[in-house]
Design a protein that fits this description.
This protein is of the alpha/beta class and about 240 residues long. The protein has helices spanning about 20-30, 40-50, 50-60, 70-75, 90-100, 115-125, 145-155, 165-175, 190-195, 205, 210-220, 225-240; strands at about 5-10, 10-15, 35-40, 65, 105-110, 130-135, 160, 185. About 50% of the residues lie in helices and about 15% in strands. It has a six-stranded parallel sheet with strand order 4-3-8-7-5-6, with helices on both faces. The chain has a two-stranded antiparallel sheet with strand order 1-2. It binds uridine-5'-diphosphate (UDP). Pfam families: Glyco_tran_WecG.
């Protein structure tokens, strides 16, 4: 069990490397321990401050990972340094590989119907030994009983929930109480990338910590949201806590 966490705005972030974190998740999957993972970028951190219910949900998760250079940078400037970024997309890749190695079952929830379907097709062809026991697009009501029932009945080992925040975390929080087992992880736009509908930033942009800039250039509709998140991060930085 990873004990080391760093608190930023009351949110406990796991302070470990991506590799060690994946090992921890594999151990929990082996033991069939129910697990809720939030991959929190600065936008999610901001939403925890704007919405009390959402903050409680994030605090109830088993793990919150720093998904975004903004969170890591904030931790460093606050002199509580986090080791590294642990992104939702990178976790999907390693978890899918593990599911393939161990013949695990997965459920894919989220994105548009065409994207969800194509993501399932791509994932099945890249990871032929994992078992996709169900999939559904993400334009749903998070209380939709039909989807909750389907996931309960299938009881998958891993459920990738790609509805964007806060919808994906609220969905998991509602579902997990009654689930028998399963690793539930909110992964934002990851299914779009698996479906090849959206390209992930080239490695050099990721290495230079500029993935956010690449996404903003490719998806200009994010600019307004990013300016809001950026000014929130500056204010947080200037506050003494
Ligand atoms: N999405 C969804 N249902 C919704 C709203 C969004 O399934 O009601 C999907 C959307 O199609 C996209 C993902 O959620 O695949 C959100 O991606 P984004 O990159 O915006 O995630 P965020 O940055 O908010 O985590």
């Amino acid at each position: 069990m990873i004990k080391r966490v760093v608190h930023l705005l009351e949110i406990p972030f796991v302070n470990t490397t991506h590799e060690q974190f994946v090992d921890e998740l594999k151990r929990r999957l082996e033991q069939k321990e129910k697990t809720f993972v939030v991959t929190a970028n600065p936008g999610i951190l901001m939403k925890t401050k704007e919405d009390n219910e959402f903050q409680h949900v994030v605090k109830r998760a088993d793990y919150v990972t720093p998904d975004g250079i903004g969170v890591v940078l904030l931790s460093k400037l606050k002199r509580r340094p986090l080791k590294e970024r642990i992104t939702g997309f990178d976790l999907t890749v390693d978890l899918l590989q593990y599911a393939d190695d161990e013949n695990l079952s997965v459920y894919l929830l989220g994105a548009k119907e065409s994207v969800n379907k194509e993501a399932a097709r791509q994932i099945q062809s890249t990871y032929p030994n994992l078992n996709i026991v169900g999939r559904h697009h993400g334009y749903i009501d998070i209380d939709d009983e039909k989807i909750h029932d389907e996931i309960y009945e299938q009881s998958p080992d891993i459920v990738f929930v790609a509805l964007g925040a806060p919808k994906q975390e609220l969905f998991i929080d509602r579902h997990i109480k009654n689930a028998q087992k399963g690793l539930f992880i909110g992964v934002g736009g990851s299914l779009d990338v698996h479906a090849k509908a959206v390209k992930r930033a080239p490695d050099i942009w990721i290495k230079l910590n500029l993935e956010w800039l690449y996404r903003m250039i490719k998806q200009p509709e994010r600019i307004k949201r990013n300016i809001k998140v950026f000014s929130f991060m500056i204010k947080t930085l200037l506050k003494n806590d």
